[in-house]
């Protein structure tokens, strides 16, 4: 009996000790104490960093999306900026003008103005990797103007434009693959790689007006909209130029980042009538293979592509093997041209954004000790050979083009 009592006292003491040492939620943050940031913008005015914040106003979202509430729709976001000698210095100044602490865990994109891109973005990357509140999966976008202007724009079909910008770049990557989604961690990895080069997609305001007011959405058309454009090319953390969308697609093939895309191939129907076939790229894989020919370094881009016919305005009988072969040859020519244009543009900019340096380093480690010291010059002189294997997987629901059927009917 006495032993049982002693055991109970010991258990009670242990439970009391555990309760005393349990910390609980001592560092909790209530939702009404934070300002949820959906997008940030980084600008440079020549002397200071300007950091802009797109902060969500939860109470106003329902009025924009059709919920009840008097007084008409209210802005679901508010944008303001702070200035500092460093990026963190600018962020700290937000405490002097915001009643809530900025919360970056739900930040979707960071938009960088061209002046900041030209100055260099090492400080921005350092901020993201040094602070636990920021996520390295945030998508990076570049703009030729100021980042703040981008954050001020509203978007159709999306109440919070920060989330909308993230969805646009994801959609672009999945459906056309012209521009890639570049998270902060990937940008850091590319800038610290052997070539010290990277790319960032462009976002800009397309149109003649401004959509920073909800009044612009009172009509069926809006004066301007946020739109993805070119590809910003970075070297040693500074932007050195832009690639066109055509060159960007070629770069996507060389970087093996094409998920789904399309090409337009010239065709010729009956009686010499010319037109175009639109082919959707269903699958694509690229291997860049470095080779030594004597003492000269060369590269081969081995591309395997399959596609389906989406549209044809030539009078073609798609049952004929010669027509299918012509489509495949046309696709090979188009993709080869895209690759060569992108490779030449990279050489003109003295920037290897294709991962060629890493492949050379792995295959020729001894030679890399010398080439790595002056890789830009080595890359600039290296020719690219393309080997394209193009296969038409499907021809669509009909094996004859509609123009072919119309021409047969007229006869």
Characteristic key phrases:
411 residues, alpha/beta, GMP Synthetase, Chain A, domain 3, 2 domains, four-stranded mixed β-sheet, 14 helices, 13 strands, 35% helix, globular
Walk me through this protein's architecture.
Strand 8 and strand 9 form a beta hairpin. This protein has 14 helices and 13 strands. The protein has 2 domains: 30-243, no CATH class; 247-411, Nutrient germinant receptor protein C, domain 3 (GMP Synthetase, Chain A, domain 3). The chain is globular. Strands 1, 2, 3, 4, 5 and 6 form a 6-stranded mixed beta sheet that branches. Helix 11 crosses helix 12. The chain is an alpha/beta fold.
**Unreliable runs:** none
Tell me the count of domains: 2
- Mind telling me the C-alpha Rg? 28 Å
CA(first)-CA(last) distance: 111 Å
Biggest beta-sheet profile? 6 strands, mixed
Q: Given the helix and strand composition, which structural class is it? A: alpha/beta
Q: Looking at the structure, what is the overall shape?
A: globular
Instruction: Assign a percent range to the helix content.
Output: 25-40%
Q: What is the H/E order? A: HEEHEHEEHHEHHHEEEHEEEHHHHEH
Strand content: 25-35%
Number of E-type strands: 13
What is the subunit organization of this protein? single chain
Count of alpha/pi helices: 14
* Average predicted local confidence, pLDDT: 86
């Amino acid at each position: 009996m006495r032993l049982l009592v002693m055991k109970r006292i010991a258990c009670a003491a242990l439970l009391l000790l555990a309760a005393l040492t349990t910390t609980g939620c001592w560092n909790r943050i209530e939702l009404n104490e934070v300002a949820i940031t959906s997008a940030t913008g980084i600008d440079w005015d020549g002397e200071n960093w300007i950091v802009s914040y797109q902060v969500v106003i939860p109470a106003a979202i329902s009025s924009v999306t059709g919920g009840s509430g008097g007084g008409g729709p209210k802005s679901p976001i508010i944008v303001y900026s702070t200035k500092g000698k460093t990026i963190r210095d600018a962020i700290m100044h937000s405490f002097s003008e915001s009643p809530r602490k900025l919360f970056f865990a739900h930040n979707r994109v960071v938009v960088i103005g061209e002046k900041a891109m030209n100055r260099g973005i090492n400080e921005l990357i350092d901020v993201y990797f040094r602070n636990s509140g920021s996520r390295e999966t945030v998508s990076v976008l570049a703009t030729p103007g100021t980042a703040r202007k981008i954050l001020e724009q509203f978007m159709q079909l999306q109440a919070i434009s920060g989330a909308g910008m993230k969805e646009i770049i994801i959609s672009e990557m999945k459906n056309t693959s012209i521009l890639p989604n570049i998270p902060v961690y990937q940008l850091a990895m590319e800038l610290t790689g052997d070539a010290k080069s990277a790319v960032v997609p462009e976002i800009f305001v397309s149109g003649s007006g401004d959509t920073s007011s909800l009044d612009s959405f009172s009509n069926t058309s809006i004066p301007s909209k946020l739109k993805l454009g070119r590809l910003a090319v970075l070297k040693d953390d500074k932007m050195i130029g832009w690639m066109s969308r055509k060159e960007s697609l070629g770069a996507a093939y060389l970087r093996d980042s094409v998920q789904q895309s399309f090409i337009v191939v010239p065709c010729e129907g009956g009686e010499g009538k010319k037109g175009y076939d639109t082919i959707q790229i269903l699958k694509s894989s690229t291997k860049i293979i470095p080779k030594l020919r004597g003492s000269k370094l060369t590269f081969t881009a081995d591309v395997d592509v399959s596609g389906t016919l989406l549209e044809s305005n030539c009078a073609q009988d798609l049952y004929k093997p010669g027509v299918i072969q012509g489509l495949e040859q046309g696709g090979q020519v188009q993709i080869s041209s895209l690759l060569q244009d992108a490779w030449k543009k990279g050489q003109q900019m003295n920037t290897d954004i294709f991962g060629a340096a890493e492949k050379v380093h792995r295959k020729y480690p001894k030679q890399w000790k010398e080439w790595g010291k002056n890789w830009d010059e080595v890359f600039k002189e290296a020719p690219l050979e393309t080997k394209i294997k193009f296969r038409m997987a499907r021809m669509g629901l009909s094996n004859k083009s509609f123009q072919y059927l119309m021409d047969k009917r007229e006869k």
